Amino acid sequence: MPSMPAPALALALLGAFGLAIAPVVHSAPTIEAIESTCAKTIQPDSCKHVLLANMAAGSPEVNSVPLMSLQVAAKLAKMANGFANARLTTDPHPAKCLANCIDDIHRVAKAFEGLPVEAIKPGDEAGVLSFSSEFRATCGEDCPKPIPERTEDERATRDKFVGVMRAIGVMQDLFITKTW
Questions:
Q1: What's residue 170's pLDDT?
Q2: How far apart are CA 129 and CA 138, in angstroms?
Q3: What distance in Å separates the CA atoms of residue 6 and residue 171, rounded to the nearest whole number?
Q4: What is the pLDDT of residue 26?
Q5: Which residues contact 21 (CB under 8 A, 6 or more apart)?
Q6: Around Cβ 102, how many Cβ atoms within 10 Å?
Q7: What's residue 36's pLDDT?
Q8: Of 11, 59, 163, 164, which residue is the least packed, with the fewest Cβ within 10 Å?
Q9: For the chain, how many structural domains are there in total?
Q10: 123: domain CATH number?
Q11: In terms of C-beta density within 10 A (0-12 exposed, 13-18 middle, 19 or more buried), how is residue 33 classed?
């Protein structure tokens, strides 16, 4: 019986059985995955709201809900930082209320610096989780208490900060409750 070289034999067998080698394709978490994972958290409504509203922030490489939450928080921090920097260009010496919120946004964005946002992997959350558990915000402490008395810039900047902090809270919830 004639022998066939090993590579040729392998190709022949693959062809005979109709098998094809395909690369592993990941997909971002689905709505159903987000809803079922968030249902196991301490604050399920906040989790669902933040992640479903930011599904476009996820990428196919990030295929777990907790890692998606890290990616969402990182992207929101980056966007808020850009917003805060724009506020500083319009007013380099803002009032204390605005200055505190801008400073807090910068500190949060710095904690996410260097994260490979498009390809977050398990373990990338470690530095951010330790930062967020020790972080003490000053945003809002020196702002006028009746919200209507705040300037438009103060309200908008504080809203950006609150959005980032809400995303960080969801991320912490998912990692702390180990919803893997």
A1: 95
A2: 19
A3: 50
A4: 57
A5: 14
A6: 24
A7: 95
A8: 11
A9: 1
A10: 1.20.140
A11: middle
Residue 158 lies in a domain: yes
Decide if 16 is inside a domain.
no
Give the residue numbers spanning the domain of 136: 27-176
pTM of the full predicted structure? 0.79
Chain-centroid distance, C-alpha 176: 15
Residue written as token pair 């971002």: 28
CA distance 97 to 109: 19
- Helix count and strand count (H, E) for the chain: 7, 0
Full pLDDT tens readout for the chain, 180 residues: 555 555 554 445 444 444 444 444 457 889 999 999 999 999 999 999 999 999 887 777 788 899 999 999 999 999 999 999 999 988 889 889 999 999 999 999 999 887 876 777 777 888 888 888 888 999 988 887 788 888 888 889 999 999 999 999 999 999 888 765
Instruction: Give domain status of residue 66, yes or no.
Output: yes
Smallest CA-to-CA distance from 58 within 72, 46, 48, 44 is with: 72
Residue 40 lies in a domain: yes
Give the Cα separation of 144 and 69 in Å (integer): 32
Q: Structure tokens of 6?
A: 């090993």
Residue among 167, 172, 169 nearest 129 (CA): 172
**Using CA atoms, how far apart are residues 57 and 79, in angstroms rounded to an integer?**
11
